[in-house]
Specification:
Elements: H1 4-15, H2 19-41, H3 52-65, H4 74-100, H5 124-137, H6 139-150, H7 155-162, H8 166-191
Helix pairs in contact: 1-2, 2-3, 2-4, 3-4, 5-6, 5-8, 6-8, 7-8
């Protein structure tokens, strides 16, 4: 098992221009990224064409394009990877909505397993819209949700990434969950 210091060292090497460090980093963190992807995918609709491994691969491709990131540590990397995965899923959901409205295009299926995913517990686009509204109101609270919900970071890791206290993370987390629920409910009411 590779420790946080090893991951941080690889991040610093990659940030310093060592492209080989990224390949080594990905092999070290691949399973943790799959766990994050599985959490993201747990709420997706049955028949979704994007599977956890494909989500990790797409996030990897987007991470390669990230330039000039001052990687702080392992938690910061996983937060960024979670953000990339969220963007991939949002883009896929918006594209699917576009298809339902008669948009053109060819469907490409990535199959990791044939078991259907669970029915969604939330509307990803509605959640993203509410999260963007929260970011306009309070960027840190939005980051707490992104790190905890999408990134799967602990309270301590989130506090470390945001450089705030554990209590601040807990307050922000509780406020944000309640605020987002209200926003999503309001949005669902508007759609009827």
């Amino acid at each position: 098992m590779t420790g946080p210091a090893d991951v941080t060292g690889l991040l610093l090497a990659w940030g310093g221009g060592d492209r080989e460090a990224l390949a080594r980093l990905m092999s070290v963190v691949q399973e943790e990224l799959r766990q994050i992807a599985r959490r993201h995918m747990a709420g997706e609709r049955a028949g979704n064409s994007l599977q956890p491994t494909a989500l990790v691969n797409e996030a990897y491709l987007r991470l390669i394009d990230v330039q000039r990131v001052a990687w702080q540590n392992r938690a910061h990397f996983f937060a960024m990877a979670a953000r990339m995965m969220r963007r991939v899923l949002i883009d896929a959901a918006r594209a699917k909505r576009y298809q339902k409205r008669g948009g053109g295009g060819q469907r490409v299926t990535f199959i990791e397993s044939r078991a259907p995913a669970k029915e969604p517990g939330y509307d990803l686009i509605a959640l993203d819209d509410a999260l963007q509204a929260l970011a306009e109101l309070d960027a840190r609270k939005s980051q707490v949700v992104e790190l905890r919900f999408f990134g799967g970071l602990t309270v301590e890791e989130t506090a470390d990434v945001l450089q705030v206290s554990r209590d601040t993370v807990m307050r922000d987390w509780q406020f944000s969950k309640d605020w987002l629920r209200r926003q999503i409910r309001r949005g669902a009411g508007d759609a009827r």
